[in-house]
């Protein structure tokens, strides 16, 4: 069918060049009975159309995505030499751009890492030093402010008040001997490990009736004991009694207007507490030194299980033996007894005031110390024998029973029994059990708790009198 028609109702459409456009034709069919044109099942009204037959009409023109250019001549198809080289250069540049960019990125990262390698530690160090300087500045400012609000004069006065409260109770002791003394076995050991000066020493008044406490090794074998009081008076002293196992001695002087020291509780004195020592080192009477309590329940080779030393860093020298160790309230918490070496080396030992007081009371009453006696040999408890989870409460193992008539044998104790308590108090170790039994007097009944294999047993034991060594 010809695309152009002379029919009056036919659309006038210019011829289309199929090379330039893509035409979308649809086939239309004219129905004369209904005066309609049928297009793919759709009806279009044609009231004024009386055409018959079939027609082909272009209903939609779709432009192509790209127009094709027709060159004017053959020369236009050939690019110029300059354009060609430029095009090739551009193509090469476009092809090499990703590689160049990657290399530049890697180079930049390498430079940044290198800079960070050297710069970051320095920055961190500067920050750390700045922080430290800030702390120092804060401490400096706080310290200066604190010094404005706290009077060091008041602290100094507190120290002086301790000295004033203790000084009048401290005495200097001189001992005269006409022959070389026999110190005994324990004193020889004590002399080899911790220097015990026997020619002079210190003491402290504990009763205004004239009772003084000092070390046994200070006055041992003395034929003439002279005491110099704090007010300068010199009086003769007599020995009330001594105890070898604790190295405690009690003297008596006839003097009035004495000022006794106040007893303190050594058990309540905690490690780290400030303490003062007063005595006569090298004959320099009423010398005061200061330190802290460094430890408790110390054992040295020269000591016995009954001494239970307290350790301090107070300067104690020959001549301090027998003098008081006091707390911040001026109360007696120990008797200075020993040092390590010939002179002070930062470690000194004192007998706890609770031990001294028990011995003092017995010596004052009877002139001797009769300790309770269980009648067993004791051994330390090893880790594999430990009962319970607390390794500090080990107890004491019975390693021997002296004889069939000893208090332990009569109560039924046997070798291998593990003693863990006395009168309901847990036993820490062998020394603790010895002190507990020794603190009790003869004929005292105590309840002993022990393990025999896996069985826990409690028995009453009537203590005997500990034999003299």
Automatic annotation (TrEMBL):
Q: Where is this region: Disordered?
A: 1-20, 62-94
Q: Which Pfam families match?
A: PDZ_2, Trypsin_2
Phylogenetic placement of the source organism: Bacteria, Pseudomonadati, Planctomycetota, Planctomycetia, Pirellulales
Question: Which PANTHER family does the entry link to?
Answer: PEPTIDASE S12, PROTEASE DO-LIKE 8, CHLOROPLASTIC
Task: List, in alphabetical order, the GO biological process terms annotated in this UniProt record.
Answer: proteolysis
Which intervals carry biased composition (Polar residues)?
85-94
This enzyme's EC code(s) = 3.4.21.107
Q: Which keywords has UniProt assigned to this entry?
A: Hydrolase, Protease
What's the name of the protein? Putative periplasmic serine endoprotease DegP-like
Family stated for the protein in its record: Belongs to the peptidase S1C family.
């Amino acid at each position: 069918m010809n695309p152009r028609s002379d029919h009056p109702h036919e659309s006038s459409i210019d011829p289309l060049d199929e090379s330039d456009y893509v035409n979308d034709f649809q086939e239309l069919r004219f129905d004369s009975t209904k005066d309609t044109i049928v297009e793919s099942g759709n009806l279009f009204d044609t009231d004024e159309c009386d055409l018959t037959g079939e027609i082909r009409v272009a209903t939609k023109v779709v432009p192509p995505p790209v127009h094709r250019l027709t060159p004017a001549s053959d020369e236009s198809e050939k690019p110029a030499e300059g354009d060609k080289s430029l095009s090739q250069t551009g193509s090469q540049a476009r092809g090499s751009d990703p590689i160049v960019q990657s290399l530049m990125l890697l180079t930049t990262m390498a430079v940044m890492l290198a800079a960070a390698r050297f710069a970051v530690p320095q920055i961190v160090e500067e920050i750390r030093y700045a922080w430290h300087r800030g702390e120092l500045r804060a401490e400096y400012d706080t310290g200066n402010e604190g010094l404005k609000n706290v009077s060091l004069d008041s602290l100094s006065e507190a120290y002086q008040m301790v000295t004033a409260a203790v000084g009048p109770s401290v005495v200097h002791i001189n001992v005269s001997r006409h022959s070389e003394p026999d110190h005994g076995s324990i004193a020889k050991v004590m002399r080899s490990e911790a220097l015990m000066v026997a020619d002079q020493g210190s003491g402290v008044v504990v009763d205004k009736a004239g009772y003084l406490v000092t070390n046994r090794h200070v006055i041992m074998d003395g034929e003439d004991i002279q005491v110099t009081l704090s007010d300068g008076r010199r009086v003769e002293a007599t020995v009330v009694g001594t105890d070898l196992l604790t190295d405690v001695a009690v003297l008596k002087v006839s003097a009035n207007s004495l000022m006794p020291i106040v007893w303190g509780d050594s058990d309540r004195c905690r490690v780290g507490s400030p303490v003062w020592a007063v005595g006569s080192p090298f004959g320099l009477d009423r010398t005061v030194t200061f330190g802290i309590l460094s430890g408790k329940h110390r054992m040295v080779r020269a000591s016995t299980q009954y001494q239970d030393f307290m350790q301090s860093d107070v300067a104690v020298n020959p001549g301090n033996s027998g003098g008081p160790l006091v707390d911040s309230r001026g109360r007696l918490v120990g008797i200075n007894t020993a040092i390590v070496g010939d002179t002070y080396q930062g470690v000194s030992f004192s007998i706890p005031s609770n031990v001294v007081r028990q011995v003092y009371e017995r010596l004052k009453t009877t002139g001797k110390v009769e300790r309770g006696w269980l009648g067993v040999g004791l051994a330390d408890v090893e880790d594999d024998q430990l009962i319970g989870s607390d390794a500090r409460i080990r107890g004491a193992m019975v390693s021997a029973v002296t004889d069939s008539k000893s208090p332990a044998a009569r109560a039924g104790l046997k070798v291998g029994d593990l003693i863990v308590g006395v009168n309901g108090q847990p036993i820490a170790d062998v020394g603790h059990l010895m002190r507990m039994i020794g603190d009790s007097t003869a004929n005292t009944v105590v309840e002993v708790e022990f393990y025999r294999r896996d069985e826990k047993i409690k028995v009453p034991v009537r203590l005997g009198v500990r034999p003299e060594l």
